[in-house]
Amino acid sequence: MSRLNRYYLAPDLVITYPDGQPHLHLPSVKRTFKVDWKVCEIISMFSSEDTSLQPIFSESMITSIVEHLVKNGILIDKETDYNLTIEQIVEEWQDWDESSWFLHLQTKDSKFETTEEGRLKNVEEFRKKTSPAPQYFKCNCTTSSIKLPTPSKLLDQTLVNSFMKRRSCRRFSEEPISLQNLADVLFYTGGILFTNDTHSYGIVAKKPSPSPGGRHSIELYPIVNACEGLRSGVYHYCQKHHALHLIEAEEDVKPFLYDVLYGQDYFLNAAVTVFYTSVIDRLKWKYNTSRAYRLMHLETGHYAQNFLLICTALDLGSFVTAAFKDSVIEEKLGICGIHEVAMYVSGMGHIVFDKTTRSDIEYGQVLPEGIEIRLPIGDHS
């Protein structure tokens, strides 16, 4: 069996047991093979110096299985060229554990239909093989509905001001924000501008924030600490009706926020903290590929950027954080963590400004004239 020394296992090989049977995954080539225990025994020969398993099989059976493994890229011939980039990613990304490089390779170079011709050619086939599109919004307005004020136009604000003044705020006053402020932030982050019926993918919503394929998987859940006209508690924003649904009233939301945000107490005085979730089935309906996992994060980022800019335009401080306990959010919001998952957290409130001159600040060499840069007080100020 010394000739087997010429082969080694593909560095990106991953074995799972989704249905009790072994499945071999090669994310670099997007291939999965369902195999039996005999193949796993042969694979174990290449992952250990222990040769005690070899006598279990005849030489002809081992040869046959090895040939198939080589043919399908699970075993690599040391004498042939191999994509060393794959080995480098697996080796150099080890600190992120296997899920990082597996997801990256599995979602790399995914196929997309990008031309109108390509879409039209496959429309009928797409319609035949899919069920109707999932609803693009969640609505509990029949249970309870708190109508929000019509969004304001913010005529005295410019995009440049929002860019220049946006800072991550780490210290908030305890002053409540207005219901109008909350209405503006939620609408310009995730509110619906209009809907239209498409020839391929049914009715889609258009919002201030962009979304891959117009699927808009993101839902917003405001945790209200101090907002005029609202009880303290956990809410859901109905984008369809620009309204709030009270999930749970709480006299004090700070203990929950302290726990779910891993003790980031500098956010506790924020007037409203917003949890972003993604309803995966909305994206999966159109993009039935692991690439959709990337799209979820991209879409969340679009929403969060709008959140930060509109808060800045309203002279509110804002923050975002990815340090949160997913399962605690899932339990509090009543989501399953399978079809709807936690993605991000942002918050807003009135800023405590730093009016002193900070010696550690060096401004950029190229700034527009007459632009004010404000520095909120933070723990690192």
TrEMBL record:
CDD domains assigned to the protein according to its UniProt record, in alphabetical order: McbC_SagB-like_oxidoreductase (cd02142)
GO molecular function annotation: oxidoreductase activity
State the superkingdom.
Bacteria
Q: Which InterPro entries match?
A: Bacteriocin_Proc_Enz, Nitroreductase, Nitroreductase-like, SagB-type_dehydrogenase
Q: Where is the Nitroreductase domain?
A: 164-349
Q: What is this protein called?
A: SagB-type dehydrogenase family enzyme
Species the sequence originates in? Anoxybacillus mongoliensis
